[in-house]
Amino acid sequence: AWFVRHFLSRYSSANNHLIGELTGLWVACSVFDLGEKGASWAAQAQQELEHEAMLQVYADGVNKEQACYYHLWVLEYFMFAWLVGVRSQQGFSAAFRERILAMSGFLHAVTPLGGEPPQIGDADDGFVTRFNVAWPKNAYSDVLASVDAVFGIGAELLPQKAFWYALSAGKIPGVVKPAKLDSKTYPVVFSEGGYAVLGNSLVHLVFDAGALGYPSIAAHGHADALNVCLALDGAWWLVDPGTYAYHSDHGWRDYFRGTAAHNTLLIDGINQSEIGGPFLWTQHAHARLLGAGRDAHGNQWAEGEHDGYKRIAGMHSRRIELDETAGEITISDEVQGVSEHELSVHFHFAPDIELIQGEDSGTWLAIKPDTARKLLVTVDQSWHWEILRGSESPMLGWYSSALGMKEPTATLRGVWQGRLPIRLLTKVLVS
After folding, report:
1. In 3D, which of 162, 166, 125 has the Cα closest to residue 141?
2. Which of 10, 146, 237, 254 could crosslink 162 through cysteines, CB 3.0-4.6 Å?
């Protein structure tokens, strides 16, 4: 406790690291009698946890590091700290509790039914607590079920972690029937965090127009502004390829967090934001969610933009539309400017998806062996299109489900060269 108190992460590391250390200090000094100093350190840790919950998490529940797995880390830290406060009769504020529930609400919203969130930002596969030696099948559902159980919402599932957390909170663990998805609840919008979720009982579409990360170095953020991920029946088809490496290989580290590794536009082979080191971005693209809703026909839409390419070209804006009746998704990209550039757009598919060219270069069919679902992707034939799988030159067509693990996957790349401005229209038909 003494060491943690005197060597708290500050400055560039004052992100999830600081929250974890404060949680450890709070728990140690609340559970064990460490005298007057322990009581003083506990008070400091609780005060700082209250402060960091408001500072590092938007009011809509999105963690500012813009990384789903670190969002999960921080959520469990806060819940654990809150639970210890209840047990030690040193409760946290109502605002702290609401921030926990808002964080849980965000993860619920971006997660397709029965699945996991998209792999937005970094992930290191660690855990705040372990209640058994078995590796969890779904770390997200474990923590989300725990939050639901601890706060008396009633969990749809009851993994061991949720069971023991509920008992620690003095609650009788129980399972509730999951609520049926209602398409009228879509789109779900997180204006401050920069996300919109479009969908229905079949389609789940996550649109990322959030900031690069937090704090100024954005250590765990990826250059993924205006990235879009698509799940059908709870399984991802258009994916965020993940993280793969931290320190072991800088080339792969840079690739997986670079713009080309995400379902968005790349200009002149340059990332939207500039990499300064394995956990450092020296120049940030500033993205924002312009809006989301339903049009006069009831179709869902979301729109965003970022300025990452103003230094070489112009603003990039993207609009996503979902026509539920036709089962069609429209992705409209516009890039402003007056000079000549090379533009490329990438669509990364899950490893179990097979991508086949249609009758011409303007149509591509995505199929999955164990399902009758299909995606028909219609693209602009004035661009040059190709499939890359497991390519090392250029690095494209890779997917990482965990640190140190990568496997080939299909990436559809379109390339265009000419004078700006330009508009690209891509349609995805779900059958």
Report:
1. 162
2. 146
- Say whether 416 sits in a helix, a strand or coil: strand
Q: Which two tokens stand for residue 365?
A: 């069919």
Residue ranges covered by each domain of the chain: 2-168, 187-430
Burial of 152 from C-beta contacts in 10 A (0-12 / 13-18 / 19+): exposed
Look up tokens 């990452």; give the residue: 308
The tokens describing 76, both together, are: 């469990």
Own/partner long-range contacts of 30-38 (Cβ < 8 Å, ≥24 apart): 30/84, 30/85, 30/88, 30/90, 31/84, 31/88, 34/1, 37/2, 38/1
Please state, for a pLDDT cut of 70, what percent of the chain lies above it: 98
CB atoms within 10 A of CB 102: 19
The candidate with the shortest Cα–Cα distance to 14, out of 60, 61, 64, 59, is 64
Of 283, 280, 300, 281, give the one whose Cα is nearest residue 292. 300
- Other beta carbons within 10 angstroms of residue 356's beta carbon come to 11
| C-alpha 399: how far from chain center | 15
- CATH topology match: 2-168 vs 187-430: no
Do 399 and 241 form a contact (C-beta atoms < 8 A)?
Answer: yes
Which amino acid is residue 121, in one-letter code?
Answer: G
Give the pairing type, strands 391-392 and 235-238: unpaired
Beta-strand runs (E) in 92-175: none
Q: Which of 377, 355, 352, 379 is nearest to 366 (CA)?
A: 355
Q: Give the model confidence (pLDDT) of 373-407 as tens digits.
A: 999 999 999 999 999 999 999 999 999 999 999 99
- AA letter at 105: G
**What phi, psi does 388 have (nearest 5°)?**
-120, 135
Distance CA 42, CA 96 (A): 16
- Assigned token pair, 304: 């965003």
CA distance 338 to 134: 57
9, 17 contact by CB (below 8 A): yes
CA distance 197 to 300: 10
pLDDT higher than threshold 90 for residue 159? no
- Whether domain 187-430 has CATH 1.10.530.10: the reply is no
Sign for the pseudo-dihedral over CA of 90, 215, 101, 232 = negative
- From its phi and psi, is residue 242 left (phi > 0), alpha (psi between -120 and 50) or beta? left
